[in-house]
Amino acid sequence: MAWEENIHKVVPYVPGEQPVGTNIIKLNTNENPYPPAPGVADALRGIADEYDLMRRYPDPDARDLTKALADYYGIEDEQVFVGVGSDDVLAMSFLTFFDSDKPLLFPDITYSFYEVWAKLFRIPNKRIPLRDDFTIDPDAYLIPNGGIVIANPNAPTSLALDLDSIEKIVSGNPDSVVIIDEAYIDFGGESALPLIDRYDNLLVVQTFSKSRSMAGARIGMAFGSAKLISYLKDVKFSINSYTMSRDAIRIGTAAASLADENYFKEVTDRILKTREEAAGRLTEMGFDVAHSATNFLFVTHPDMKASDIYSALKEKNIYVRYFNLPRIDDHLRITIGTPEEMEELYKALQEVMK
Ligand code: PMP
User: Fold this and answer.
1) Whole-prediction pTM value?
2) CB of 182 closer than 6 A to ligand 1?
3) Which residues contact 102 (CB under 8 A, 6 or more apart)?
4) Ligand 1 near 244 CB (within 6 A)
5) Which of 96, 229, 276, 333 could share a disulfide with 235, CB 3.0–4.6 Å?
6) Are 345 and 314 in contact (CB under 8 A)?
7) In angstroms, what is the span from residue 137 Cα to ligand 1's centroid?
8) How far apart are CA 65 and CA 245, in angstroms?
9) 101 alpha carbon to ligand 1 midpoint, in Å?
10) CB 78 within 8 A of CB 69
11) What angle is formed at CA 115 by the lines to CA 111 and CA 116, rounded to 5 degrees?
């Protein structure tokens, strides 16, 4: 059809499977196995009581949530931007900050959405190979570029880059915006957040989807200099004034409050404990397990193909993530579940690997 020639054609990102039904052990999209903080349940009840407010548009600036986050992290409200999950925040950031003829740099193995956004927004890009051990070489990012995006800890490798190396990349690129995607930072690694006061070209992106157990609420945020954030808002307000629903703002504000801090730490600690146990158990089974700073493990087995393990586990209603991509098609990414779910995984693996 002639009209098809005028279409902006893209190859979309494919998210992990979201199977319907019960009796499924879901270790494939790095969700938190524990419920959100108790304050979130109270906020949801408040929404039901005030359902009449749904007539009204939400606050386009999501000021309550922005302020709660600024207070929680000890920064200014003007240094905070919020959106519909960090995917929304990252997409807006790509559109805002990467408008150069020089290439946007990101690792060859990383969150696959970066390449999708780069193509969608026609941003020239160059993938920088990870070292053979899947670590990031900071010096490789000291080349001419139109921007940099790095997930730290990186996904799906689960490895963290130290803060000095992050600072080296940020300070070595004063003419570019550097985005550090910290979706998994609460499970390990050192946040670059303290650097935003010193580097006005640094944007730190985080999410409520992982450590805060709220993937279903779709809340993400970015922290940066007031100038960076104001440019980001200009683009957001050129697309959709009301990205975040009234409900999301309300429950996000509840979850960001200091009152829930203890619960949040307790849940994270539990996941870290299960992660260390899982690393030990999988190593005993002959897996090579990367040193994870996240809520998932990146593993490979010398005797069995990752794709076969993935399919055999799926037959048993256990979902893990397999990427049919160069360099990592022999690996699996396994989200840390509850200790009970992990026991089911070990049992299934033992049967599969017989
Ligand atoms: N960044 C990374 C590295 C991720 O793994 C994910 C989760 N798929 C995201 C960002 C987006 O998460 P969300 O949109 O749920 O905040």
Assistant:
1) 0.97
2) no
3) 124, 144, 145, 146
4) no
5) 96
6) no
7) 22
8) 12
9) 27
10) no
11) 100
Q: Which whole-number Å values give the CA distances from 344 to 141, 264, 276, 287, in the listed order?
A: 42, 25, 17, 17
Picking from 48, 118, 57, 54, the residue whose alpha carbon sits closest to that of residue 90 is: 118
Atom of ligand 1 minimally distant from the CA of 86:
16
157 in ligand 1 pocket by Cβ < 6 Å? no
Structural domains in the chain, CATH included, are 2-36+261-353 (3.90.1150.10), 38-258 (3.40.640.10)
Taking only the tens place, the pLDDT of each residue in 166-204 is: 999 999 999 999 999 999 999 999 999 999 999 999 999
Scan for tokens 């870290």, then name that residue: 272
Indicate the DSSP class of residue 174. T
pLDDT tens, position by position, 68-122: 999 999 999 999 999 999 999 999 999 999 999 999 999 999 999 999 999 999 9
Q: Name the band, by pLDDT with cuts 50, 70 and 90, for residue 262.
A: confident
8 A C-beta contact, residue 148 and residue 139? no
Q: Is 193 in the pocket of ligand 1 (CB under 6 A)?
A: no
DSSP labels for 70-109?
HHHHT--GGGEEEESHHHHHHHHHHHHH---SSPEEEESS
Ligand 1, atom 1, residue with closest C-alpha: 183
Please indicate whether residue 111, judged by its CB atom, sits closer than 6 Å to ligand 1. yes
Mean pLDDT value across residues 119-127: 98
Cα 87 to ligand 1 centroid, rounded to whole Å: 6
Supply angle C-alpha 27, 155, 96, rounded to 5. Answer: 120
Say which amino acid occupies 67. K
Mutate to test the pocket of ligand 1, among 32, 69, 181 (most ligand atoms within 8 A of CB): 181
CA nearest ligand 1 atom 6, residue: 183
- Percentage of the chain beyond pLDDT 70 is 100
> Which of 233, 201, 194 has the alpha carbon at shortest distance from 100?
201
Cβ–ligand 1 distance for 87 under 6 Å, the answer yes
pLDDT tens per residue, range 13-44: 989 889 888 889 999 999 999 999 989 999 99
